[in-house]
Design a protein that fits this description.
The chain is mainly alpha-helical. It folds into 2 domains: about 210 residues, MFS general substrate transporter like domains (Growth Hormone, Chain: A), CATH 1.20.1250; about 200 residues, MFS general substrate transporter like domains (Growth Hormone, Chain: A), CATH 1.20.1250.20. The longest helix is centred in the middle third of the chain and has 33 residues.
């Protein structure tokens, strides 16, 4: 199925069986290992932090530590691609992430844990920005949506099976044993990148002068600030509803409907399964009809599903709303990465994609805070309406203010 999606009449390295195999080994499998490791931590990290006998506020800070680290590292990561090379930065990121998680096994205090989580965020940013740059440089515009949507599918698969595996490991060998498992699977990703990922000439190219790429990057931003401002704002709103659903559904199920943990887990699992089943459809839509044919319905449907949550009066009602949200999110698998790749200027892709990643991470990190603050001041249903409004705003901005990038041969005007 993946082969059929990446096949094209146009000849390029990914058209051959060897090229496809190299893409799987250098891009998809390492990504699966990384997201599998992320999933392993889901049931382990909260209980591990609680063992230090700290309050909920500090536990929340520990859980957000990696996301905070990515915010600090996104833009610098984009800038160091040119100096060290795409492959080398990917390897450094996986190494830092693997070691920082492994050291959690020996962490004596909660403050050491927090520092290690920040470093894990640095490593995660180095890998994700580099992987985004890698697929942008090696996949042409006409097939980019399919390739990146499959990348999104690996994220969903790792996130789906990782928590279950992490729970089994923690139950059999103890909480800290899970960190060894995360380090091992991340290390496998590092080995795959070292063996099969290659640098392209564009990634290794040097600017004509020390500040040339920075000048071009700033000039390109100035020439296209309206498109970038609208697309960036829409991405913040879009990532807000994507992250908000993981907070809203469990809270509403427990606090309003009084559902048990097993029922909440089943609702989330079914929603994730629907989400995961649509990543190939998302890629086909983006490459066949245009990016907006996937992006606009993605956030519009999520907004509708989120708006239905406060009206759910039973397990079945919340399940239907969650499935609708999963349907919408699945239609946008890889869409923000694809749009960022389309908009990135060829001479400053690393810098641009680092900035694009930062914009998305702001929305993703801020969503739980928005839910918490609004729910604390008003009520939970008000926070849900705010998150639904973010999805509607994202869909509307993408529909009316962001041009279709599939048909644009040069997404950013030359500086």
């Amino acid at each position: 199925m993946v082969t059929a999606f990446l096949r094209s009449k146009r000849k390029n390295p990914t058209d051959s069986a060897n090229g496809l195999r190299a893409l799987i080994l250098s891009f998809y499998l390492p990504a699966l290992m990384v997201t599998l490791g992320q999933g392993l931590l889901v049931p382990i990290l909260p209980l591990y932090a609680a063992d230090f006998e700290i309050g909920y506020g500090l536990i929340g800070l520990i859980l957000a530590g990696e996301a905070i680290g990515t915010l600090f590292a996104d833009v610098p990561t984009g800038m160091i691609q040119r100096r060290f090379g795409n492959k080398q930065v990917m390897m450094m990121g996986l190494f830092v992430k693997s070691i920082s998680v492994l050291l959690l096994f020996f962490a004596p205090t909660i403050w050491i844990v927090l520092v290690l989580r920040l470093f894990a965020g640095f490593g995660r940013s180095m890998y994700t920005v580099s992987a985004h740059l890698y697929v942008t440089n090696h996949i042409d515009l006409a097939k980019r949506g399919k390739a990146i949507s499959i990348f999104g599918g690996t994220h969903r698969l790792g996130g789906f099976i990782g928590p279950a595996v992490g729970g089994v490991i923690a139950g059999a060998f103890g909480l800290r044993a899970g960190f060894i498992g995360v380090a091992l699977v991340t290390g496998i990703g590092l080995i795959l990148v070292a063996l099969f990922t290659r640098n392209s000439k564009r990634e290794g190219a040097r600017p004509s002068s020390e500040g040339d790429h920075h000048i071009h990057f700033l000039s390109a931003l100035a020439s296209n600030y309206r498109v970038l401002a609208s697309a960036g704002l829409a991405q913040v709103f879009g990532q807000t509803i994507r992250a908000g659903r993981t907070v809203v559904i469990p809270l509403f199920a427990a606090d309003v409907l009084g559902l048990g943990v097993d029922q909440i887990g089943l609702i989330v699992s079914i929603s994730v399964a629907v989400d995961f089943s649509l990543f190939l459809v998302a890629g086909w839509l983006m490459d066949r009809y245009g990016r907006k044919f996937a992006i606009v319905p993605c956030f519009g449907i999520q907004a509708l599903g989120m708006a239905l949550v406060p009206f759910a009066a039973s397990y079945t009602g919340l399940l239907l709303a969650a499935v609708l949200i999963g349907l919408g999110n699945g239609l946008g698998s890889g869409s923000m990465m694809t749009l960022g790749s389309d908009l990135s200027p060829a001479r400053s892709r690393g810098e641009f994609l680092g900035l694009w990643r930062l914009i998305g991470d702001v929305g993703h990190t801020g969503a739980p805070l928005v839910v918490g603050v609004v729910a604390e001041i008003l009520v939970l249903s008000s926070a849900i309406w705010v998150i639904a409004g973010a999805g509607l705003a994202a869909s509307s901005i993408f529909l009316f203010m962001v041009p279709e990038t599939l048909k644009r041969k040069r997404p950013l005007a030359a500086a």
